[in-house]
Structures are given as C-alpha cells and as structure tokens.
Amino acid sequence: MDMQTIGTVIRDTRKQRKLSQAQLGHSLGMSRATISGIETGKIAEVGIRKMMALCAALGLELTVGLRHQYPTLQELRQELYEQARR
To answer: pLDDT tens digits, residue range 45-63?
Structure first.
C-alpha cells in the first residue's frame, strides 16, 4: 500500500468521524498542515509513532505483512503461451 492510498483511508475515516483536520491534529499534537500532508500523500515520510497514533485515534489498525509477489508481464505471456500449446 502506498502513502497516497493510506492517506485516502485516513481522510475518509476522519470525515466519517466528523473531525476536521485541525481537531484531529490538535488531539494528537500535530498541525493541521501535517494531517493534510499525510492525507494527500504529500508528506513522503511519516514516523511510525506518528502514524500509529493517527491510526489509533481514528480506530484504524496498522498492520505489516508480506508483499504479494505478482507475476511479471513476461511470466504472464509465457504462461498463456504454454496454455495455448496444450
């Protein structure tokens, strides 16, 4: 998941909870600009503690898992070629 997607989830959840960026930021000791930057993905690097606090305040869970290995285009073409030969 990229920062843009994470930011969108945070923004949507904040709005569902009827909180402004300023209200959320104030409750966490962050500026409104920081919350805005996280939501829009313009802040490329956010500290893990800050992200955990933000998620906790919104009732979100921050999880870590193995990244799915997706096949390359070349692998998909090879698979299709082999299926066609059968």
So the answer is: 889 999 999 999 999 998 8
- For 22-77, the three-class secondary structure string (H helix, E strand, C coil) is HHHHHHHCCCHHHHHHHHHCCCCCCCHHHHHHHHHHHCCCCCCCCCCCCCCHHHHH
Q: How many CB atoms are located within 10 Å of the residue 45 CB?
A: 5
Question: What is the domain count for the chain?
Answer: 1
Q: Which long-range contacts (CB under 8 A, 24 or more apart) does 40-43 make?
A: 40/4, 40/7, 41/2, 41/3, 41/4, 41/6, 41/7, 43/3
Write out the residue range of the structural domain in which residue 85 sits. Answer: 1-86
What's the full length of the chain, in residues? 86
The CATH number linked to 70 is: 1.10.260.40
